[in-house]
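Shipment paperwork, digital attachment
Item: protein structure file
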Amino acid sequence: MRKSMQRWKSILYNTSFALNCLLVFLLMFEKGLVVPPWVQTIGRMHPLLLHFPIVLVLLCIFWEAVSGFRKSITEEQRNIGDGLLLLASTTAVISALMGLLLSKEDGYTQEVVAWHKWGGVSISLLALGWYTFRNSVRNTKGLLALASATGIATVIITGHLGADITHGDNFLLAPVSKEKLALPVLFEDVIIYTNMVQPILKAKCISCHNTQKAKGELVMESFVALRKGGKDGALWDSTQENFGLLMGRIHLPMENKKHMPPLGKPQLTDEETSILYHWIKGGANDTTKVAVLPVTDTLHILATTLFNTIETDDYTFKSADESKIKALRNNYRLVAPLSLGSPALGVQFFSAVQFKPEQLKELLAVKEQVVTLNLNKMPVQDEDLATIAQFVNLRKLNLSFTNIKGTGLQELSKLKELKELSLSGTGVNAASLSALASLPKLTQLYIWSTPAQNQNLATVQRQFKNTKIETGFTGDTIIIKLNKPLIENEEQVLLQPVALKLKHYVKGVTIRYTTDGTEPDSILSPVYKSDFMLDKNTTIKAKVFKPGWISSDVTEKTFYKAGYKIDSIRFVQPAADEPYKKMSAAVLADGQKGDQNFRSGKWIGFRGYPMQAILYFDTVRNISSVTISSLVDINGFIMPPQQLEVWAGKDLEHLHLLKKINPEQPVKEAPGYLKGYELNFAPVKEKYIKVVVTPVAKLPNWHKGKNDKGWIFVDEIFLN
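Attachment content:
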């Protein structure tokens, strides 16, 4: 047995020695090393094997250190230590050779790989040398300590460098880096590239496209490198049908070898794909903030689900006593939580005649909880700013059209959490604004209609490097376009007739509207009057006109008559996709209308097969119409239904078709919109209704997801 063991030790040692000689030889002539394809396969086994020498080396260090620092070591302990050292040496040199072969493939930055490569070689030579001189190491505690420390350090450093190559720069320390530990970004500060696009690239792309491992000569660690592209060219081109290489690779079939991310790697979610698509479509800018986008923009809608606002942020301070809040409320001052369950308070003053400086001081009872303070058009003086400066958690401060002159602005420099400040319509000048330049989190400063607006604004902007200064519109001879009218009716589901409420803030305008789906014009469309009643399914389109102005865009909103109460509702087959498969069919009859954010929890989505809903009534109902409220978001793969059907009967086994329609399908990209499909038929008296909504089987060829399955989204069904 002993002879057999000695023979195996001799074989392993000679093998390890020979392979280390080969390793050193290849390194000496590395520049001339050419790796044929069949040898590349051996090199690609490096990630498979490298974990063995790491574990064995660390195990050797532990075993030798524990055994070596004892007063005596047994023969059995020596044999175990010898075996571990030999296995560590052999696996380390094999792994190092494979890594050397792998490094010769394209896509690796040789300057960075070199450090990892020499680390692997060092581990291999250290293990071989340790075994060769094992008796001397074991008998000299200082040498044993040096070898152990060197081994541990080399394994850690080499492993860290390897992780950087495969997973991106600073992979090991990224979770505790300054960037990772930074406070979450609020919606108001979100930069589309930095806070929405770059995290996707870091999670799904950079492991293969970094400065250490630039597959396809493509680096995605910075916007400059991203814009440069790789060996196949630029990553995006908004003039192309699929917007270029990046989106084209993402939408390739999974089994295609050019599909990105590669098969086996974490794939992009629909939400992540949508963010990249709309970012490129919008010009792929690296400085644009999401807050400047229209509220109907897809990126704006997505960001509202991903980021907190000042109002909905997670605040760590305690809530104020409810009795204090109640005592501070009166007819001229509103004090209320910014959102349900939030400790943050918002304060707003209403009457300039009733305002007194003492009312600000009364608020100091909840100074830690006040986050927004609106003093617009109140007679606030510079002396009052010392009181305001005590609201240490203030994020939003509106001092527009107050009596502020600027002499007390230095007091506001104490508000280290302040993000938005409005001084529009006050007497502040450029010199007084410099007192606010030290505010670390100030991102928005409004100074239109102030002396500062017409002074040395360039100098002011240089002082406020991270602040956007709004100076308002200054054109004198430009014809201005009117903004859209407001539809103030909040409830879209009509339980009873209500008056239509349209509003516009510009005096002297004429609001015209339609109810037949056409766009209002300035001549034939009816003029809005407050006596128009909403008492049935109605789509209101409104537009504003005024002589000398460009007419506004159209505001649109659909109202639904609630109709019969559905006693019970169920799906024939529930939705198959997350998160909708967990949703009950009751969402179709809860009276809660969704907006254009299909992730709000008020919508349910189906694809691949129809949504079939059975509606039950306790008694027979006289029904003549069914309205299905839906959402269309072409860029989000949500299309109009291919077909809608309504069936009815007195029992589920004998349903008959009442109505079937095939909605018109879009022929090009368009903004998202809400749509109600009304199916009218001769009145019937039935107890059971079945609604079938069929999604498009394949997206059209002009769509970015051509041949993929289309979605349908429904949130309410109304019966009248």
